[in-house]
């Protein structure tokens, strides 16, 4: 293309054709291909089923212990009662 005088005009035509393919034909072909792609929601859960799945999630609750918080000279001390035994923080 660049060495021959006969093909002098082609050095301007080929980049134009490449740009047309890149910016017009490729997006057009991609859009047509996308139009025939099945993006239905058949593979997803229904609203009621998804709601049931989310509402059925549970957690294991731990035991609850009564506690007392005391103010000391060093800060605060936490005292927890467990099975009749008092457990204190340092």
TrEMBL record:
Membrane topology of this protein = Multi-pass membrane protein
What's the main place this protein lives?
A: membrane
Q: Which InterPro entries does the UniProt record give?
A: MalF_N, MalF_P2
A biological process term (GO) from this entry: maltodextrin transmembrane transport
Q: Which GO MF term does the entry hold, naming one?
A: ABC-type maltose transporter activity
Does this UniProt record's set of keywords contain Cell inner membrane?
A: yes
Q: What does this protein do?
A: Part of the ABC transporter complex MalEFGK involved in maltose/maltodextrin import. Probably responsible for the translocation of the substrate across the membrane.
Protein name (Swiss-Prot/TrEMBL)? Maltose/maltodextrin transport system permease protein
């Amino acid at each position: 293309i660049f060495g021959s005088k006969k093909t002098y005009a082609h050095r301007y035509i080929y980049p134009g054709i490449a740009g047309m393919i890149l910016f017009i034909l490729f997006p057009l072909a991609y859009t047509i291909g996308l139009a025939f792609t099945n993006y239905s929601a058949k593979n997803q859960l229904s609203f009621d089923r998804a709601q049931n799945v989310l509402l059925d999630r549970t957690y294991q609750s731990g035991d609850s212990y009564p506690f007392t918080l005391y103010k000391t000279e060093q800060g605060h001390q936490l005292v927890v009662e467990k099975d009749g035994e008092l457990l204190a923080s340092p």
